[in-house]
Design brief:
single chain; about 280 residues; alpha/beta; five-stranded mixed β-sheet; two-stranded antiparallel ribbon; 11 helices; 7 strands; globular
């Protein structure tokens, strides 16, 4: 790569991440800011309505949930740090690049992945009952149930380890939300990776499409940007940080077909996004 790529990992829609991306962009003034948002998100007629998705007066929508929408006490929009990053990048004259794949594609892959995981569970249960279909008395049903509970315990073991990790970082009561959040901050970026490992044990297809495929997609866009621009700042959620970085460094393979030009946002459209809480 001719240029340089610096990656920043964020936690979606937290005040700390919102402040951090603004500070980093204004201090560095990079040539390009690549953000984890799908193409067309700032267009007048995007593939889905950004204003509807974020409008607190509208019914809850899937896009709105995915964007972690929220409002302040005064009813003013307070949205994802990615939108704040786009606004600040436009303010400092950096090119705003949308790294993620189209939202419609992600939702299509998401639904198929969930269906695949659920079918996998059902297929496993059916196999268990098929093997034991000739043993239908109460004792055998209890034995089968005990075996399935044991399997659930094996699947859940990563979650147990994750809870223990949070406890080692100060969350003496994992049910206490404030303690969990404080422990996650001390845990650092590894917290997101640990959480992903927990979910992957239960929903492998979902994590492949929601994390792995998007990691590769965004890494391909950043690789292309680095051949065209001198200074690229990439902003992705912490859960994507390791996967994108490993593909950029060559530690993990990156399909060359994914190394292509991403979508560039029009600055005048970015500036119209409802980002301010003033």
């Amino acid at each position: 790569m001719a240029g340089t790529v610096e990656l920043i990992g964020t936690t979606h829609n937290t005040d700390q991440s919102i402040e951090r991306v603004e500070t980093v962009i204004r201090d560095r003034e990079p040539d390009v800011v690549g953000i984890e948002l799908p193409p067309h998100v700032f267009d007048d007629e995007p593939e889905w309505s950004i204003r509807t998705a974020l409008d607190p007066r509208e019914p809850v929508t899937v896009p709105g949930l995915l964007l972690k929408r929220r409002t302040t006490d005064g009813g003013i929009w307070q949205v994802d740090e990615m939108f704040v990053a786009a606004r600040v990048a436009a303010d400092v004259g950096a090119e705003v690049v949308l790294l993620d794949r189209p939202f419609a594609v992600s939702m299509d892959e998401f639904s198929r992945a969930v269906a695949g995981d659920v079918l996998g569970w059902l297929r496993g249960l059916r196999q268990e009952y098929t093997i034991h279909r000739d043993r239908i008395d109460a004792n055998d049903r209890r034995e089968l149930l005990e075996r399935d509970v044991w399997k659930v315990g094996e699947w859940a073991s990563p979650y147990v380890e994750y809870i223990r990790s949070l406890q080692s970082h100060g969350a003496t009561n994992p049910l206490d939300a404030e303690q969990r959040e404080a422990a996650k901050k001390r845990f650092g970026p590894e917290d997101a990776e640990a959480a992903i490992d927990v979910i992957r044990a239960w929903l492998p297809r979902l994590m492949e499409t929601h994390i792995d495929q998007r990691d590769a997609y965004m890494a391909g866009h950043l690789r292309w940007l680095a051949t065209e621009e001198d200074d690229v700042l990439g902003i992705v959620a912490k859960g994507h940080l390791a996967g994108v970085a490993e593909r950029l460094s060559g530690e993990r393979e990156l399909d060359e077909r994914l190394v292509r030009q991403p979508a560039f946002a029009d600055p005048k459209n970015v500036s119209e996004a409802p980002l301010d809480s003033e």
